[in-house]
Amino acid sequence: MNSWVRLHPSDHVVIALRPLSAGDTLTLEDGAALTVRDDVPKGHKVLTRPVEAGEHVLKFGYSIGRAKEALKPGSWVHTRNLGTGLKGILDYKYEPSAKAPLDESAVGTTFQGYVRANGDVGIRNEIWIINTVGCINKTCETIARRAEAMYGERVDGIHHFAHPFGCSQLGDDLTHTQKLLASLVHHPNAGGVLVVGLGCENNRIDSFKEAIGDFDPRRVKFMKSQDEEDELEAGLELVGELVEYAFGFEREPVPVSKLKLGLKCGGSDGLSGITANPLVGTVSDRLIAAGGTAILTEVPEMFGAETILMNRAADERVFGQVVNLINDFKNYFVRHGQEIYENPSPGNKDGGISTLEEKSLGCTQKGGQATVADVVPYGGRTTAPGLNLLEAPGNDLVSVTALSAAGAHIVLFTTGRGTPFGGPVPTVKLSTNSELAGRKKNWIDFDAGRLLEDRTMAELTDDLWERIVRIASGEERTKNEKNGFREIAIFKDGVIL
């Protein structure tokens, strides 16, 4: 294996594929010898051509920031000598890029799914308990635990998703909570849903029903705890009715065009944009070519790479939606007096990412080369097949919850640092490096680091695609499912009374 990789011919830097020491010699593409000036950790950048102070430094063929000082070849390029070149809120012009050909090898593929009464398709047949307010988290947790013991063998699981909101919220906060939870109620991975309220909260059941809209009373049941003499027994009885209804569904062949994948990265490192993120992008493209849907989020981690997505917009209407998506999130930072480009995180920096534009250029690779078909507001559900951009922050739990609410059956979660968590839906953890996959076997589902060792992109794309079809068909469970790690988090932007 080579000790470095250059991602684009115009790049000023190469990425270390192993730790390098000062004095090491690298042989570059043209046979020239480069002496490394500093100790460089794996995944970090080494300069291969001189750069003057204030000059752009290129990686991925794009600027990842400006040099803080004159830099000599062989230097370790990181936060000490590279700063962001981003500032302010920008004006954008629609300059549509040529549509890239996508991999059509999955056209006509099927998986074994559950077709719901309204035509939606699920990949699990679970019972979900959704509470309208945080003060009954433990009530719902108890109902879920007891119901699992009573009915668990008849469905794919009975799950409750704790959250602290629904009471004393005002304005957009309450709207976000209701919209997000309502979208989860509609998720087809749930064969039945029990909505549990307390009775005196802002998000009371009557108003929450309005947020839910049309629903099948066989599939969605409601309980107001203050009205029940024994809310635990009443809840168990309602879950029993939901299990009886859900038990009537069986897996059947479904076109892969019905599948929706959420795309997310967390704890990224310098290899994320080389291995796991491009791999997810190839799978996303394959699904979209077959008529399916992929959902990309983490809006603040599009800053610096947003024009790539804007110019892939299906038309000027979608372009305008993407511009609003980006600028609205920048204004959110400004409104709270925060620096728009205060990123990457400490863990990202440890892994080799120096600036937000570098992080964003790696992050957006998860969206592959597909045309951007639609933009979805926070808490909303996708309606257009193809690549959708979803309004949500970069925070792992908030964004994965939003992806699930938007309709993602599975979330592909790339990571270079590792995390055990999972969302409401199967959350496939893909490691950017093989060391993490070997060390955290209970967390990681797929080792994308093999791209730097013994597998080609085409081979790993096939491997990951086959794994996704098995997971969708219920033949395989993800680590978060096996470990029982399922969580939600709701976006907050307002006053609590």
Could you walk me through the main structural features you see in this protein, from its secondary elements to its overall organization?
The model has no long low-confidence stretch (mean pLDDT 95). This protein has helices at residues 137-151, 171-185, 205-212, 231-246, 276-289, 306-310, 316-335, 346-351, 356-363, 396-405, 434-439, 457-472, 479-483, and strands at residues 4-5, 13-16, 25-27, 33-35, 45-47, 56-59, 62-67, 76-77, 82-83, 110-115, 121-122, 126-131, 158-160, 190-197, 220-224, 252-255, 260-265, 293-296, 372-376, 386-390, 410-415, 427-431, 446-447. The protein contains 13 helices and 23 strands. α1 (137-151) packs across α4, α2 (171-185) packs across α10 (396-405) and α5 (276-289) crosses α12 (457-472). It starts with a strand and ends in a 14-residue tail after the last helix. The strands form 6 sheets. A 7-stranded parallel beta sheet has the order 19-20-18-17-21-22-23, sandwiched between helices. The chain has a 4-stranded antiparallel beta sheet with strand order 1-2-5-8, with no helix packed on it. A 4-stranded parallel beta sheet has the order 13-12-14-15, sandwiched between helices. β10 (110-115) and β11 form a beta hairpin. The radius of gyration is 24 Å and the shape is globular. It has 497 residues and is of the alpha/beta class.
